[in-house]
């Protein structure tokens, strides 16, 4: 059965264990609706904006990019097991902004996001990605609490 509401579902991940539940919910909804999944990992390059660009910065950047690809591979594997097509993208920039822009540019019908793995001081300094997406997206957002 295909849904008229959900043809394209975006699942955002930060690679933390806290997003596993959001991946399961998003993938199951996609399977039931007959939707395609667009998996997104955003490399928060703004967090490194004040650092000098040198070999250490480039190594850290590549390490984070690899982490993102591994997080997306997890979603891709779940999709294969569920028979759901998955398109993966690693983006650079502020996570909430990049997720909303990607969703708009790709005609996404639903954004699925977990309460991403930021806690403590990181959450206070960076704010909540999920909260920002909810407040800035014209596209429906499903937030899954870990």
TrEMBL record:
Name a Pfam family for this protein. Answer: Usp
| Cross-referenced Gene3D superfamilies | HUPs
Instruction: Please state every residue range assigned to the domain named UspA.
Output: 6-145
Which branch of life, at top level? Archaea
Q: Which InterPro entries match?
A: Rossmann-like_a/b/a_fold (IPR014729), Universal_stress_UspA (IPR006015), UspA (IPR006016)
Q: Where are the transmembrane segments?
A: none
Would you identify the family this protein belongs to, as annotated?
Belongs to the universal stress protein A family.
Q: What is this protein called?
A: Universal stress protein
Source species taxonomy:
Archaea, Methanobacteriati, Methanobacteriota, Stenosarchaea group, Methanomicrobia
């Amino acid at each position: 059965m295909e849904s008229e509401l959900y043809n394209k579902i975006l699942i955002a991940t930060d690679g933390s264990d806290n997003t596993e539940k959001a991946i399961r919910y998003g993938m199951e909804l996609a399977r039931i609706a007959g939707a395609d999944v667009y998996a997104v990992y955003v490399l928060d390059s703004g967090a490194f904006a004040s650092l000098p660009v040198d070999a250490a910065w480039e190594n850290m950047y590549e390490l984070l990019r690899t982490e993102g690809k591994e997080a997306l591979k997890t979603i891709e594997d779940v999709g294969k097991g569920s028979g759901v097509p998955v398109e993966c993208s690693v983006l650079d920039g502020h996570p909430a902004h990049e997720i909303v822009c990607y969703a708009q540019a790709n005609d996404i019908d639903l954004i699925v996001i977990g309460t991403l793995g930021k806690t403590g001081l990181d959450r206070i300094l960076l704010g909540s990605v999920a909260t920002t997406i909810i407040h800035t997206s014209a596209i429906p957002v499903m937030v899954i609490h870990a």
